[in-house]
Specification:
Elements: E1 13-16, E2 26-32, E3 35-40, E4 46-50, H1 51-57, E5 58-62
Antiparallel strand pairs: 1-2, 1-5, 2-3, 3-4
């Protein structure tokens, strides 16, 4: 299985495949480690999921380059 590596970092906004109960699928990464913590950009709910589950559910990464 040759999957391309998706590059994401802390405070990046990501679009997930399925939308949240509030209707949006835009999240912000707030913690990274073995688990990844995401914060919903619409209702501010926070969830945690393991890295493998996150990579399966990830659709697109929107980079926030605030370090200019």
């Amino acid at each position: 299985m040759n999957k391309e590596k998706v590059d994401y970092k802390l405070n990046d906004e990501v679009i997930m495949k399925k939308s949240h109960a509030c209707g949006t699928n835009l999240w912000t990464i707030t913690r990274m480690g073995v688990d990844i913590k995401l914060k919903c950009n619409n209702c501010n709910r926070e969830i945690m999921m393991d890295r493998l589950e996150f990579q399966k559910k990830l659709k697109k990464v929107i980079n926030n380059d605030q370090e200019k």
